[in-house]
Structure formats: structure tokens, C-alpha cells
């Protein structure tokens, strides 16, 4: 009896890509949205109804691409980060805003405005063209794509510049740092400290450098734009209304953007934002008048003993910045003011237990890259659900993880912890 010949993987992938692209295009047609394009005025995002098809296409195309590479080429593709030099040039001189919308800009003009030789400018810019950030529509002349247009936003460019000028250098010393401090347990014993020849944690350094602080603020704004991190997942995915009239402390809530959004949507919530080094008066002045009585601010060391009683303590993407022992310390610091039934809501990513087990691989790769960045910068980490459970249990056995909610397509889960003394 003849053994049936299995379909080659590359053919399976091509078939899957064809089907998923057809599914995606059907969604776009139904929504009246144009097909993806690099055109300057093309829609920057796909409708959420296309997310499943998008995940399938991106995972399959990435696998097909990698299958067709030789091992040396595959490793080179994943290790050659020299393009950060080109991105750094683009950011420092703000080329996206130098190029007018709907207009053209020559390499000769960029050279004149930056003081760089034109043959150097052309090398940087053509690297950006190959990354599909710009289009070279005629020799030596660029136009916008939707990506370069998006980079005109100050927060987006500042975030990328921080990565090009600080993040890239920080990553280069991560192995040296771990050889020097193998336990990765302190926020001031990191690659950041080695590569930037500094003491203190990344946050301490940012607080003492206005330019770094401005870029950090821009990076915080950028978070809301990343796929899967938008606030709507938090607002729609957890039943805030069911809490009833409650006081919520937003621990490490920065300038209160989340608290303002929650108070605006849910009139049952009274928010108090706590963070280190906060200017309470300045922060409160930025709150819309109609919410000022329900959104307040308090300067507070998030690792210090909690001094305010509340029904709910909300902590979003704070613990991932820190080594385990500091996450445990932060949870324990809330205990003195916890009453029976009080809740701590951790809004954090859940790393898959093994690659490909619970996330589309293209999204998981971004999350794992972020995890390595946290390691290099602060010895922070993204964690699996099992690792989160271990931290919660170590903090105090009276903390009970009651529920885990992760809305579809969200990169963050809400872990609902109840205090049960």
C-alpha cells in the first residue's frame, strides 16, 4: 500500500496565506476600508475584525520567509541591528517633519540641513527606504509612506530616538552585566549601568536628566498606540461597573491618564493616583473640570508603606519593570491598609509558558524582545501566569488570585487578587 505523500510545509503555508489574505480582504471590503498600502495617506491600522486573519498571515509569512533562508542568513537577519544607526540619524534630525506632507525631499537638501556629506545621508536614507519607512520615487529623492507620516508625531519620534540612542547601547552589555551580577536581582546592577557608566537605577537616572525624562514621557504615551495595549481593552474587558461605588488607588499611575479614562467612563469610581516624585498640583490641574472631584493625586513611594485605605488598588505595568523581590515588596507594602475583600488588580502581560502556546508568534516575539529590554535596563521581566502566581503567593498567602481576565487581542491581562486575612 502506497504511503500518502504529505504536503510540503512551504506549500501548506502558501495555501494558508492565500486563504487568510482572502479572509482579511473580505473584512476590509465589508467595512469599506482600502487594502493595506505603504501610501502616505493609507489607513495606519486595520479594523479589529481583521485581527485573526492578520495574525494568521503574519505568522505564516514570517515562517515561510524564514524557511527559505539559509541558516547563516537567518541568524544574520536576527542579529544585524546596524539599522539603528540609520534610525538614530532619522530621529535626531527629525527627517519625517523635514519632509513636507505630500512633498519631496532630496538627499542633497538633507545633507545641507544636517551638515552631513550627501554620500553619507544617502546611505542612511536608503536603509530607511529598504525598511519601508520612506519611498525613493526618483534617484536621490524621497517621499512619505504612512510610516514616516506617523513618525511626525512627537511622541512616536521621541520613543524611537530613545531606543536608537539609549536602548541600543544598553542591549550591548547585557551579557557582561549578567556575568558581573548573575542573580539579576537589583535595578542598579544592569547593562544600562555598565554601558552608560552610571550608578543608580534607570528611573533614578531619568529623573535627573530632563531630556531623558521627556523621552520617557513620550515612551509612556507610545504604549497606548501599540497593538493590544490600547486602553479600550482595560475599559471594556473588566467589569468596573460591578464594583459599585469604590475608591481606587492607581499605584504608580504616572500622570493619571488611566485614572482619568476610568473616571470618565465609570461614575462609580473615585480615583487616587500615587507615584514617586509627583507634582500633585500640576497633575490635578490637567484633569478635566468635570472629573476633578473624582481624580486626585498623591506623591508616594510605591515601595513604601501604603498610607491610604481603598477598595481597589490598581497596578498597571509597574511590577514588570522590577526584579521579583521588588514586586513582592510592592505587594506587601499595601497590606497595612488592606481590609477584608479589598482587591489588587495587576494589569500585566502574560508570557506564554512555551513559544507559540498561547499567542500568535509575531506578537510573542515582540513581547519576548520587550522582556530582554527590561532585563537589560532594570532587571525587570515579563512573566508567565505561573510566575505571577509565585510572586503573589510569596508576597503573602492571604493574597488570593481570584480571577484572570484577558480580553481577546489584548496583550495585557487583569489579575484580580483578593485580600482574605
Automatic annotation (TrEMBL):
Coiled coil: none
GO biological process, one term: methylation
Key word S-adenosyl-L-methionine present: yes
Highest rank taxon of the organism: Eukaryota
InterPro entries in the cross-refs: COMT-like, COMT_C, COMT_dimerisation, SAM-dependent_MTases_sf, WH-like_DNA-bd_sf, WH_DNA-bd_sf
A GO molecular function held by the record: O-methyltransferase activity
Segments forming domain O-methyltransferase C-terminal: 189-395
Any single Pfam family the record assigns to this protein: Dimerisation
Keywords noted in UniProt: Methyltransferase, S-adenosyl-L-methionine, Transferase
Residues of the O-methyltransferase dimerisation domain: 88-151
SUPFAM superfamilies: S-adenosyl-L-methionine-dependent methyltransferases (SSF53335), Winged helix' DNA-binding domain (SSF46785)
Transferase among keywords: yes
Residues that span the membrane, as ranges: none
Protein name: O-methyltransferase gsfB
